[in-house]
Amino acid sequence: MSSAARARRAIVTGAGSGIGRAVVGRLLGERVHVLAVDIDEAKLTEVAGEGCDLLVADLADPAGRAKLAEAADGADYLVNSHGMLVVKSIFDITPDDWRRIHAVNAESIFFLCQQIGPRLKPGGAIVNLSSSSAKLAATTEVAAYAASKTTILSITRSFAYALASRPVRVNAICPGIVDTPMQDTVLAGMARLRGTDIAEMNEARNRTVPLGRPARPEECAGAIWFLLSDEAGYMTGQAVNFTGGLVTW
To answer: Is 145 a catalytic residue?
Structure first.
């Protein structure tokens, strides 16, 4: 078999920053051809130098998902790492906040799995990014985000069954505190709402982690690569914690 015939292709959403960008780097290091997808064209342009193809798309929009599904035809892997949050008191979350968060974080992932899963090559894999907040409730300032991430766990289980005969494996990863721009947003919002400063808030959060520190995006990307790889060939429908011990169930 030629090297071209063995070439693998991956779709990575939310590729412009944070965990998504780290996943792009890891996959390229594994000699996987990557289509990097993000709504932010400026951030995505920064990824261009890493040697992947780019697609600007709003995945909360059916037209954006359709464009991606067409481009994804025949790929091996799909990593749904896009997402958004709003940091507010649980008592101030509005219906518009709820709908917007769920459109980006849950609805889009359901329909991407629906539209792209059957197009993946047999033996392919999907990894959906959930969160430790899907299992914990202490950070009530991101309650709507947490609800959307819990929904992702159900979506993952359902598509694991639906795509098993192809076979395409579908798993989720639940990162805890990861050093990303989104984490910076959470810290700033929590500090403001709780009347403390960001440094104190950061130290307090790190103390809740048995390993005593946040994860690096590259570490999380390594765990995602494992779930995509043949090493995890007997795993599907799982929600894998990546929390430094913060969540153990």
So the answer is: yes
| pLDDT attached to residue 1 | 37
- In the chain, which residue ranges form alpha helices assigned H by DSSP? 3-6, 18-29, 41-47, 62-71, 95-102, 108-116, 143-163, 181-194, 198-207, 217-228
> For 51-80, what is the mean pLDDT?
96
> pTM value?
0.95
| Structural domain harbouring 33 | 3-178+220-241
Is residue 48 a part of any domain in this protein?
yes
Q: How many domains does the chain have?
A: 1
**DSSP summary character for residue 229:** S
Query: 77, 145, 161, 234: which is the annotated catalytic residue?
Result: 145
| Cα–Cα distance measured from residue 156 to residue 128, given in angstroms and rounded to the nearest whole number | 7
Residue 120's CATH number? 3.40.50.720
